[in-house]
Amino acid sequence: MEPDWQPFHTLDLTAQGLLPDGWAAQVAALADAPERIAIIDTPGWSFAIVEGDMVRARLDWFWTLYHGVLRDFASTSLGQPVFASNRLSSATTLNVLRGGGATNDWHRDANIVTGVFYAAIPEGAGTLSFRDGEDRSARLTPRPGLFTCFPGAIEHRVDPLPEGGERLAIAMVYHPSPTDQPPAFGRDVYTL
């Protein structure tokens, strides 16, 4: 096991003074919006999302960060230019995990860079774990106001939450070019 493997990069947006007053309450309100889409709804826990069009409409400050500071940080951290997604619904999504055992199991993302902004995390929980085929693993303990980015091809998951836990995180995708990415159609097409 390689103890010093760290496949992610972090930026503390709170410490940098990049978040507006009341940002956490705005994200919490969006998490309970009628546009929330249930992905998993079991008796003990749930996983839901709010798509990018609602993130853009209700959290305009975040949309600005996604296209500016966060994109630039991801590009610098990973040593290559990255571009925002052309698809409005999936460029950013608010992921809402609630309840004991709530998780987002092991997976890889199809995009070159994945970003996550943390808005609410249960104390000592909601860890983001990473692993690869070389027997390496790493963990990131998130906190509100933290942004992280990493190559989407690295296998990752959200460790299960404790009873009564809630984890609000805005996931975002970046691509290697403005054209080398899934196309957008209809309501998914947007301009800055």
Folded structure, characterized:
With 192 residues, the protein is an alpha+beta fold. It contains five helices and twelve strands. The strands form two sheets. Strands 1, 2, 3, 4, 5, 7, 10 and 12 form an eight-stranded antiparallel β-sheet that branches. The chain has a four-stranded antiparallel β-sheet with strand order 6-11-8-9, with no helix packed on it. β2 and β3 form a beta hairpin. The longest helix has 10 residues. The protein is globular and about 40 Å long. The N and C termini lie far apart (44 Å). The mean pLDDT is 92.
Task: Tell me how many strands there are.
Answer: 12
* SSE pattern: EHEEHHHEHEEEEEEEE
Percent in helix: 10-25%
Low-pLDDT windows of residues: none
Main sheet overview: 8 strands, antiparallel
Label this structure with key terms.
alpha+beta; four-stranded antiparallel sheet; 192 residues; globular; single chain; eight-stranded antiparallel sheet
Question: What layout of secondary structure does this protein have?
Answer:
Layout: E1 9-12, H1 23-31, E2 37-41, E3 46-50, H2 52-58, H3 60-67, H4 69-78, E4 83-84, H5 88-91, E5 92-98, E6 104-107, E7 113-120, E8 128-131, E9 137-140, E10 146-151, E11 155-158, E12 166-175
Antiparallel strand pairs: 1-10, 2-3, 3-5, 4-12, 5-12, 6-11, 7-10, 7-12, 8-9, 8-11
Helix pairs in contact: 2-3, 3-4
